[in-house]
Amino acid sequence: MTSDRYRFGEQTRRGPLGSLRAGQAAVAVGGAGWAVAMIDLAPSGGGAVAALLGLAAAAVAASVPVAGLTLEQWAPVGAGWALARLRGLARWRRPPGGADGVVVALPARAAAATPRVIRAVRPAPPRELRDVRIVGLPYRGRTIGAVSERGGRRLTLVLVGRAPGFALADESEQQQRLAVWARC
Questions:
Q1: Contacts from 162-170 at CB under 8 Å and sequence distance 24+?
Q2: SS3 for 65?
Q3: Is 15 among the domain residues?
Q4: Contacts of 14 (CB under 8 A, 6+ apart)
Q5: Strand runs (DSSP E) across 13-78, as ranges?
Q6: Residue where a domain stops, chosen among 105, 124, 143
Q7: Whether residues 63 and 113 fall in one domain
Q8: Which domain holds residue 26?
Q9: Per the structure, how many domains does the chain have?
Q10: What's the pLDDT score for residue 114?
Q11: Per the count of CB atoms within 10 A, which of 61, 120, 134, 172 is most buried?
């Protein structure tokens, strides 16, 4: 039995504009519009320099990746962050106290006395996470963690599995492997 390895290339991304994304096309049109406007407003050497700088900036924004995304792809992320800051939704602070939200007072002679709870503080997560809980589920004699949302109606968890060559196996082999995995 040979252990051949197959590596597939990246998925091609083609759309109506070929490999050009709509955001890239919009930035290119904006850069061209800037260039035309600069030459129209200042038909001189300075206008030509401003037009070329605008075209170069548009080319960089549409094609040079920063942390895996181009600047035109970062624009919606930055705009959402700025909007959240303006609306006061970008800050989330943990309530005072320990990890469980309990504020504890220690007496002056802490070595001799036990600490007492002043107040228990309920966690105040951001609005997007208010209905999300981490729950424990029994699985094969152990407990695994899952994310519960919408009042426990939806659970999300990740199980690691390895399936070497599954996608390349024929349908009957895939069915046999699924049957073995279902018994685990």
A1: 168/6
A2: strand
A3: no
A4: none
A5: 65-66, 69-70
A6: 124
A7: no
A8: 22-87
A9: 3
A10: 63
A11: 61
Task: State CA 28 to chain mean position distance.
Answer: 27
Tens of pLDDT, residues 113-136: 565 655 666 666 777 777 888 888
Q: Classify residue 7: in a domain, yes or no.
A: no
**8 falls within a domain:** no
Position 4 in a domain: no
The domain boundary, picked from 37, 69, 87, lies at 87
Q: Do 76 and 97 fall within a single domain?
A: no
Residue 29: pLDDT band by 50, 70, 90 thresholds?
A: very high
**76/60 same-domain check:** yes
Distance set, CA 135 to CA 110, 114, 125 (Å)? 35, 31, 16
CA separation for the pair 39, 133 (Å, rounded): 58
Max mean pLDDT range (54-58, 66-70, 98-102, 115-119):
54-58
Q: What angle do CA 113, 114, 117 make, to 5 degrees?
A: 135
Cα-based distances in Å from 97 to 93, 107, 123, 131: 12, 17, 10, 22
pTM above 0.90, yes or no: no
Q: Residue 142 pLDDT > 60, yes or no?
A: yes
pLDDT confidence tier of residue 158, bands split at 50, 70 and 90: confident
